[in-house]
Amino acid sequence: MAIAASLRGTVASVNLGAIQSNVRRLLQVIGPDVALMAVVKADGYGHGALPVAQAALAAGARWLGVAMAEEGIELREAGVQAPILVLGPNNREQLAAAIRYRLDVVVYSPESLEWVIEAAQEVDREARVHLKLDTGMGRIGIPAAGLDEAWLERLSHPRIVWQGLMSHLADADQDDPASSREQLKRFLDAVEWLRQKRGSLPPWLHLANSAATLRWPGMHFNLVRVGIALYGIDPLPGEWGLRPALSWYSRIAMIKAVEPGTSQGYGRTYRARTAERWATIPVGYADGYLRGLSNQAAVLIGGYRCPVIGRVSMDQLVVRLPEALDAHVGDRVTLLGDDGEERLTANHLAEWAGTIGYEIVTRIGTRVPREYLEDR
Ligand SMILES: *Cc1c(COP(=O)(O)O)cnc(C)c1O
């Protein structure tokens, strides 16, 4: 962007030192025999894929994960050499582009394998593939029990380098581990069948996302795919030693004193009970501050929690100032992050909006410039 990031006064500040500290923490959890894939899909969960990828690799991550070919190609074009796995369903054109850029791809259906083979022939390259088993997620992947000799035959095509066998958990962040255990069992059965039939396994076996990586060492195999924990957002209740990487700041645009009974915003969903002071913040749902946060959330100003009152509109929101707070136009507003003793996490906002921390950070819009710090 040609316009200085600071012009707007609203910024998402990403601490790459926190990302690196989280990588080191996760490496401690998995130990030296397991590799870490830093999942940087959706522009690094809204944090910026390239800076996060570079920081994570420098701290010891060995793989990168993206959802689609275009995301991997962007990293390659920026000079990233590390192995990159394209995790999601991609169409024939995307798979061909992925193979051209030396991205590993997921084979998740008979068609996807045909496309990969055709594409590999077309671009005259070998295709590095990871076979995805559906062990209970019900999304992409061949049924785990459907791994048979016909698949081994198809995967022995000369253009195919069989790099990995993988699956994905539906319930790793839930209290009840039963369904994840069942998924693990199906995955292990397929691994065992493969060992017997083929006499060898592909080099990489992987099942765990962030939650499973933190809580179940038995699911690490030799590669874990970590997204949300990398960004310091706890995937599970508990103390995991992760540091939130993203803070979101703005500035007070206007302060007004209002009479009791004054209404705020569209639909007049909030009315002042007493004489109050309100501050308008120039951030709205078009920036990714979800409309579901209306009358639910709080922001931090001068170390105080200030409740969001009335509806969040497209470009503005309004908060009530506590009596004790001496606030001025231009003062810093923390939408996400620390101010004094107070902290607002993506999980706090998620709870207020009835969603998950993943959605809070991935929805922060392109209108909010990202700035990068090396450490706090
Ligand atoms: C996004 C994704 C992950 C990362 O999940 P987190 O919960 O963010 O750690 C892992 N595996 C696959 C297949 C994914 O799509």
TrEMBL record:
Domain Alanine racemase C-terminal: 245-373
Binding site for substrate: 139, 314
Catalytic activity, as annotated: L-alanine = D-alanine
InterPro entries from the UniProt entry: Ala_racemase, Ala_racemase/Decarboxylase_C, Ala_racemase_C, Ala_racemase_N, Ala_racemase_pyridoxalP-BS, PLP-binding_barrel
Record-level GO cellular component terms: cytosol
Gene3D superfamilies in the cross-refs: Alanine racemase, Lyase, Ornithine Decarboxylase, Chain A, domain 1
A GO biological-process term: D-alanine biosynthetic process
EC number: 5.1.1.1
Residues the record lists as N6-(pyridoxal phosphate)lysine modifications: 41
Keywords: Isomerase, Pyridoxal phosphate
Top EC class, one word: isomerase
Top-rank taxon: Bacteria
UniProt pathway: Amino-acid biosynthesis; D-alanine biosynthesis; D-alanine from L-alanine: step 1/1
GO molecular function: alanine racemase activity; pyridoxal phosphate binding
Active site location: 41 (proton acceptor), 266 (proton acceptor)
Cofactor(s) demanded: pyridoxal 5'-phosphate
Family the UniProt entry places it in: Belongs to the alanine racemase family.
Functional note: Catalyzes the interconversion of L-alanine and D-alanine. May also act on other amino acids.
Name of this chain's protein: Alanine racemase
Organism whose genome encodes this protein: Sulfobacillus acidophilus (strain ATCC 700253 / DSM 10332 / NAL)
